[in-house]
Design brief:
Shape of chain A: globular
Distance between the termini of chain A: 24 Å
Helix content of chain A: 10-25%
Structural class of chain B: alpha+beta
Distance between the termini of chain B: 34 Å
Oligomer: heterodimer
Strand order of the largest sheet of chain B: 1-13-3-11-7-6
Number of helices of chain A: 3
Number of helices of chain B: 6
Largest sheet of chain A: 6 strands, antiparallel
Strand order of the largest sheet of chain A: 1-10-3-8-6-5
Order of helices and strands of chain B: EEEEEHEEHHHEEEEEEHH
Amino acid sequence: MIIESTLKAEQAIRRDVVPAGDYYMKVVKAGETLRILDIEGNQAADTLFYNANDPSERYSAMDTIREQGNVYLTAGTKLLSNDGNVMLEITADTCGRHDTLGGACATESNTVRYAIEKKCMHACRDSWLLAVAENPQYGLSKRDITHNINFFMNVPVDADGGLSFADGISGAGKYVEMKAAMDVIVLLSNCPQLNNPCNAYNPTPVEMIVWN
Amino acid sequence: MTNLNTSIIYEETIPGASHWSMVVPAGHTLTLTDPEGGSNVSMLFYNPNNLLERYNAPDTLKCQHTFKLTKGHCLYSDMGRIFCSVIVDDTQWIDSVGGVANKQKVETKWGARNYQADRNAWLQNGYDSLLVEVAKYGLGKRDLAANINIFSKVKTNDEGSLSFVEGHSKAGDQVQLRFEMDTLVVLTTCPHPMNPATEYPNLPTELSLTKSAPINDDDECLTSCDENGRGFENNRRYQCNHSHHHTSPTLSGAQ
């Protein structure tokens, strides 16, 4: 569902450009709104959320899609935790559909998906592991690296149980916005994938914009 | 083929609303049978030698371009290796996304959990059931990944809307998982969170463990896609096997 935002970038309290292959790990407080901006288009923003006051509570893809009765995320979607609580709600979306089934790339899964000899290419899960290592104040480790959202990715599922990675429906300047219902740690890997046509083999920056 | 009837190492019945776990060594096959129809078995997998290596639903689905899991599919760890291959699935669809119900959900749908009144027929929920079982290995809430639900089907329509298919598993239906590496299997027989039954479905599941038959070059799981060939190759390297049961897999391929 396409819903445009009324928020003005110049009134934001924080703006960070995240180049492809880097991570973003910051707290967004309850009541604040986070926009993820696909600056150049068809980028994948692999994102995890944790309750900043108890990170064992985290985004749950299964609970989110089951309780809303739909596999795609868009405006109106409540992002639920493993405890069934609303963590954030998507309030604006100019892309229309986001994936939460496809997960994040890893060096190991790249060997399976693409080729054994691709194993040493940079991947999202390495970015997350670096993020948790460089930010020990959150107390996270590999066991917390779970099943994420791929903002801007288009992964259609069909009635026969097939799943495909379709051409992106995002484009330059498209964004998704969500309002936090609790203090959340936002852990994003701006996907460095060079083997997938979904980003035209050209990973590009995203911007993280926060309003209070 | 091995005569499975003469090579059963053990067999047992897991009642409904219950949890269990076991380490299944590589080269063994776990057969699950739904004796009455309508069972649900929520299952998670870990590497017993490195519990940080665990079943990864997105990796499993995307590398085989599938939303459902069934015969011919492999179940992958987050380390690019295959825990097990699905070699029999009479139901033709294992749910990959429904997750488990928590205490609040079971209470809303079927009533409160009350051991004092109900004893072992209590209205246990899948989330707490798995939580208790993984705790036996030092694991907890942070380690509960997305699970599979054997004997259950959740499908989508073209708009992505999810629906639970009632009456999916019939009495006598079987699923066989052939383990390709040593695996800690954690399971619960609590009902599927989307099951619309008006009464709490308390249904047992039968398990049996056998030696696997040798894997041939034309094995359905090995050959169903190039990705699985590479997954088996990763297992071969992990297990330091010089000779393997199959011809060299395609080491690279189109995405």
